[in-house]
Structure prediction request, 147 residues.
Amino acid sequence: MQISWAAPCEGDGWLFDTETGCRMSDWHPEPEDKVTWSGSCSAGLKHGKGILQWTEHGQAIDRFEGTYRFGRREGLGNYVWNENHRFEGNYADDVPDGFGTLHIAGQTMAGQWHNGCLTVGGRVVAIGVPRTSCMAGEDRPMRSAQQ
Prediction:
């Protein structure tokens, strides 16, 4: 299983929060889509504790509550995709790293994440990185600091 929020950041997939001056990634921004950030910004990047809320076609979708450090998730956070799919745990360099719990597709998987990867019960889960980078002995590829 793989959940990615890195891939769309490499193209034109950006929204701008006019209230805070922060730019946020979005899979496929439409003119009516919005994103809001309740924390502060540093040079256009989310910085500090806050809530990030994406709205698509007038409906609230993904939501992240936690801390960003110069635009990247850092420390404890809670990412909610919908009422049944969420991740609660520690982030480092924008991906799960440390203890965390994923609730998805009616299943709960918890354990020590490393560079966006969790291996539990013979299953490999990736959030924010390609699943192939989670295979034994491989490190997560470096990404641009703009994401």
About this structure: The mean pLDDT is 81. DSSP finds no helices and 13 strands in the chain.
